[in-house]
Structures are given as structure tokens and as C-alpha cells.
Amino acid sequence: MPRIPKIALPVLLMTSLSACAPLSSLLGEPDRNIFELMPAADTPMHCRARPVGDLVIEEPKSRSVLDTDRIMIRPSALQAEYLPGARWGDTVPVTLQTLLIRDFSRYDAFRHVGRAPVGTMSDYTVISEINDFNAEASGGGAVVRLSVNASVIREADARVVAQGRFTRADTSPSTRTEDIVEAFDRASRGLVAEMTAWGLAAMQINTQNCRPR
């Protein structure tokens, strides 16, 4: 009987296991589906200007029903429920904070972009409050609504250099969790892209001077 090379044994073992049992029986049935929203863009941008300094994106404020990793859907204007068996990867405020950090970080117009300053104080800080981050039942589908109030603070003199209100909506053809999450993803990409462009302009960064790296 010919000998099986040692390097082939793990491959044969994995093939044998996958043929005998589904993956769920090996890893255990998940108790929920975890969803993550994608960044607005991934392309690094080079800006032909000296960096303006450090930028901190504070965790957005929100009311308690949104300060959760559960996915909210409203059957009516006065009722809030959550999609069963589905979660965001983080709470809603941390999810938005992460998306904003990723989008601002694409631009080398900053020395540092993060949740906290590198030193004792940042040069600019973005503070915000989430008003809406939910789906609303509509006919046989749903409408996702996002709205955020935000301000850019110059820390040297605690001056508010810009304020804005940002809203996005997108439709889901059904109330299936996957369809609703895809509508959230489209809406959040647009929202984050708009907030980043507004923030860059408030900090006097001319994006016409920025090119893909």
C-alpha cells in the first residue's frame, strides 16, 4: 500500500469532515446573524498641502433605543422593535464612529485620525448626535432612515467652525433582514461620504487638490 505524504493528510481530513457533516455541526449553530456596514470608499487620497493636524471623531450621542447593537425597525411612527436574531457588529454609535474614522483616514491631510488624540488635545474634533438609524415598515417593504446632527470644533479656541444636519433614506423591497441591511448599507455610505466632504471643507481642506494614491 503506497504511503500518503504527510502534507496531504490535513487536506484529506478536512475533505472527509466536510463530506460527513455540515459546517454548522462542527462550529455550532450561531444564535444570531452579525452584520457590518461597509465604508463609503477605500481609496487612499493624497492631498497636496501640509497636514492640518490631529482629528478626533468622538462617539456619537444617541437616545437609549439606538445605543445598542440591535437593528431597529418601526412598525408604526410610535412603535420601535428590533429585527429578531440579527445584530450589528458594534452598537449604532460605535458603528457610525468607525465608518467616519475610516473615511477621514483615507486623506493624508491629517497627521492622525482616531477616537482619541495622540497627545493631550486634538486640533479638530467632530461631535455628533444620531437622531434616526432605523427602518420603517412601508407596504410590503421598508424605508431606512438615517439622520445625524454634527459639529466640527477647533480645539485651540473651542470654536464651532461648522454645523450640519445630514439625512439619508433608502428603500428595501421586503422586510427580509438581508434586504433591510443592504438598504442600511447604501444609506450609510451616502451619509458618511457627505459628512466627510462637509468636514474636510470646514477644516479648509480643498479636496480638488487631493488625488488617489
UniProtKB/TrEMBL annotation:
<dbReference type="InterPro" id="IPR005586">
    <property type="entry name" value="ABC_trans_aux"/>
</dbReference>
<feature type="domain" description="ABC-type transport auxiliary lipoprotein component">
    <location>
        <begin position="41"/>
        <end position="195"/>
    </location>
</feature>
<dbReference type="Pfam" id="PF03886">
    <property type="entry name" value="ABC_trans_aux"/>
</dbReference>
<protein>
    <recommendedName>
        <fullName>ABC-type transport auxiliary lipoprotein component domain-containing protein</fullName>
    </recommendedName>
</protein>
<feature type="signal peptide">
    <location>
        <begin position="1"/>
        <end position="21"/>
    </location>
</feature>
<keyword id="KW-0732">Signal</keyword>
